[in-house]
Structure of Palmitoyltransferase:
Amino acid sequence: MSRLAHTLWNDKHPVIMIFFILLLGIAEILIVPPAWPLLNDSRKVTSVILMLLPYIFLYASANSDPGYITPENHPHQMTLYPYDFTIFHPGQECRTCHILKPARSKHCSICKRCISKLDHHCIFINNCVGYGNQHYFLLLLFFTATLITYATYIGFSILSNEIFKHLPNWTWRGKGYVWSQYFNIWAWALQEYTRIGGVTLLCLLTAPLVWGLLGYHFYLIWAGTTTNESMKWSDWAIEMADGYAFKRAIPSNRQKDTTIEPAWTRWPVESEQVVVRTEDGLPPIREGVVGVGEWERVWKLRDVENLYDLGFWDNLKDVFWPRYGVWHKKERKAEDARNNGRSNADSSATSSLRRK
Ligand SMILES: [Zn+2]
Ligand SMILES: [Zn+2]
């Protein structure tokens, strides 16, 4: 029993995903047979397409690589995002995978691997949501929400038509009826058509949850962050409010330590600030911290830049079309040319990162 509980809590298993599939499947088995003869052709086609899409994107989210970081792809993973020197600092090693953590990555204790741009581990898809499958996850949420909303609409529309057969002056707005009569009529329809009524009510109640989750993920994209990073940002907000956070400038021409951070990334911008916390609430005195000039105390999140926020559309593009070097081919070419001109130690930066 305790081993089972340990597995359910700590390991990958499809129990919740099976529950999700059963919930969808049983609701469909309940509502489709009685509703089907009452649908016109265009509604039949729409229903079939909408019922298939969540399964397709559930399969895609569950079976795609969320961005597993392996020793082989590590050099590539390092060049996806630069360190922001605020929530991601270079030189931190994953204790389990023994690799340098790329910016925006996190180790998932359930998948037992480091994941690129990890958002969260999702028990409904039995997989992490990360760089590699975030778009499938968003499409799964969108089409599940759309299906549930459409089912709510179709369900009430069928029930309203059935009421009309008994009450010829009936409209769904209930014109000519007082509130109590109106609700009694609907209650009668729900009882008379239990299967359609039950599933319709379930859809009505669950649709806001799925839309809410989708809305939350769009908010995260708008803010240029992930579920994982938003937790780090809220920790920072507390440190800042308490007066323990300081920032200072990072010059753009600084010399990078290419044994712990990539010489270049495909991201169009680099951090111009370093943000650190101190134990005593006094400005940092540590030697060797990146950046130049005086330390400035920061009180609010809005006083620091989020390097990973390029604006809503570019953030969205990064989720759906995360192509390599999509924004700044020119800059990358220039950077490559510069790297080629340097010593061998510099141009083999990625292989030294890998050794690390
Ligand atoms: Zn790891
Ligand atoms: Zn995971």
Notes: The two ends are 40 Å apart (CA to CA). Strands lie at 106-108, 113-115, 120-122, 127-129, 245-249, 273-277, 292-297. Residues 85 and 159 are 58 Å apart (CA to CA).
